[in-house]
Amino acid sequence: MPRPTKVSAAAVRKAAAFIRGGGTVVFPTETVYGLGADALNAKAAARIFEIKKRPHFDPLIVHVSSIRQARTLAHIGPEAEALMKRFWPGPLTLVLPKKKIVPEIVTAGLDTVALRMPADPTALALIKAAGTPVAAPSANRFGSLSPTTAAHAGAQLKNGPDLILDSGRTRIGVESTVLALRDGKFFILRHGGLPREEIERVTGRLGAALKGGRRPASPGQLLKHYSPRAALRIIGKTPVRLRKGIKYGYLAFTSRPAAAVGCFRILSRSGNLAEAAANLFSHLNELDKAGADVILAEPVPARGLGLAIMDRLRRAAAR
Q1: From CA 123, how far away is CA 17, in angstroms rounded?
Q2: Which tens digits make up the pLDDT trace of 187-230?
Q3: Beta strands in 183-304 (DSSP E)
Q4: Labelling 116: which of 76, 134, 263, 317 has CA 20 to 30 A away?
Q5: Class of 5-203 per CATH?
C-alpha cells in the first residue's frame, strides 16, 4: 500500500499521470475519499471493481470538472442543466441518459450514467490535470464504511491504488445526493450531502425516494451498505437491555449514553446535523477500532442531512 501523500501541485500532477496511464488514485472530495480511474478506459475502471471487491452490477459515479465535460458523457436536458448550474460544483449526482463514449463497465450495462462535479479543489485539479473524466466510488472495501480520511482509505485498500492523496478530513462526511429524472420529474435515488429541502427550492417537490434492489440504478442503493465490522442496531425509545459477554459501542446524537457501554462517540453535542454527518463514518470507524461487537446507534431527526445519516444507519443495520 502506498503511504498517503500530502496534497501539492506536484502530487496532483503525479496522480493525474497515473490516471492517464490507466492507474488508480485515492483522492479527496468534499464528501468522502474516492478511488478514481479514467472513466473512458474500461480496463482502468475494471481495476476499481477489483480493488474494492465491488460487484460489477453496481454502477460508478463519473466525476467531471465542468458542465461542458458532462455534455460529452450524457444527454443533458434543460431541467438537469438548471440543477447543475445551481448546485455544481457540489454534493449532487445526476443520473442521465448516457452517450456511447461511456464504457459499459462504468454504468453496469445501464443506459444511464451518474455524473457529479465535486466541490473540492484537489479533486477538480486532478480531473483537469488528467484531461479525462474520473470514475470514482468511495475508497473503501465494498459494503464497508466510507473513508473520510486518507488513512482510513489506505487501511481498507491495502493492495491497490497507485497513489493516495491526503488533504485531511473531508468536509461533509457522507456521500453525494443522487437524483434521477424520469418522465419530467426528479426522484431521489440516494439521500446525501445536499439536503432535499435545498433541491426542492429549485425543482419543487421531489418524487419519493426510489428503492434499490439487487440491480441498483445508481451507487449506494443496495440494501446492506456502509457497514462497520461490528453489528449495528438502531435503538428506539425503550430502554436497551445489554447482554453479558458482548462489548457494546454507542453512537449518540447529542449526549453521552445512560447505558453502561464500553465506548461511545457523540455525533454533535449541539445537535447540528452537518456536524453529525461529518462525524458519522469516522465515529463508527473509531467504535470498530475500539473492539465493539455491537454498536447501538441513536436515531437523528429525519430532516436535512439527518435523512442521509439515517439512510446510512439503516443500510449498515440491514441483515
Answers
A1: 14
A2: 999 999 999 999 999 998 887 766 655 567 677 666 666 789 99
A3: 185-190, 231-234, 248-252, 263-266, 294-297
A4: 317
A5: alpha beta
**Bridge partners of residue 313, in order along the sequence:** none
**Whole-prediction pTM value?**
0.93
From 39, 35, 185, 16, select the one nearest 102 (Cα to Cα).
Answer: 39
CATH match of 231-317 with 3.40.50.11030: yes
Q: Which of 9, 12, 16 is nearest to 165 (CA)?
A: 12
- Grid coordinates in use for 168? 485531511
Cell of 101: 463514449
24-66 pLDDT per residue, tens: 999 999 999 999 999 999 999 999 999 999 999 999 999 999 9
- Which is it for the CA torsion 254, 189, 225, 113, positive or negative? negative
Name the one residue in this structure whose C-alpha cell is 483522492: 27
What length is written for the chain? 319
Q: How far is CA 10 from CA 16, 121, 126, in A?
A: 10, 14, 11
Instruction: Tell me the Ramachandran region of residue 2: left when phi exceeds 0, alpha when psi lies from -120 to 50, beta otherwise.
Output: beta
Task: Write phi, then psi, for 11 (nearest 5 degrees).
Answer: -65, -40
Q: Position 272: which residue type?
A: N
Which helix or strand (DSSP H or E) is residue 26 part of? strand 25-27
CA distances from 244 to 35, 139, 261, 293, 298 (A): 40, 36, 11, 12, 21
